[in-house]
Prior knowledge:
The protein has 193 residues and is an alpha/beta fold. Helices cover 44% and strands 19% of the residues.
Amino acid sequence: MKLRYAMVCSSNQNRSMEAHSxxxxxxxxxxxxxxxxxxxxxxxxxREPNVYDFGTPYKQMYDELRRKDPDLYKxxxxxxxxxxxxxxxxxxxxxxxxxxxxxxxxxxxxxxKVFDLVLDDLNNREHSLMRPVLIINLEVKDNHxxxxxxAKVALDLCQELExxxxxxxxxxxxxxxxERQHKRxxxxxxxxx
Length: 193
């Protein structure tokens, strides 16, 4: 693989981690992040989410929720998701706090609000390298089924980008063909490092 990818959602739990997992298994150079202020997981009700700081290990969340209500968190898919996540990396990482992780060629977001936050962060950095980065938003609902389907679509898109000689020269045709094939609209922009 010639490009370096970042998968970004709000909490670095479901959509970004599902795509991270699939792309890693396919041999891509991939990382994942969240853009929220905290990591939020569903709780017993909408008014009672489980809130964690970025950097809290997935295993710690898993153990805590398993102690709280193993039936609820198994039934709603949170425990299997956390188990999957802990097999990929230690803990959720916040995009804005991890700029030292390196330079990405492509940043794929799964929600327009996240796309805007990533673009804003990149545009407010010093652009000393003048190296382009492609930011693409692929809208995916934040549930387990949609995250799994979205990861497959994200993989297709990344495989198309890998097949180009230079994404800067072919991004318009790649996006047009992708949108036609998948019947999904993409939002994209270019920033710089």
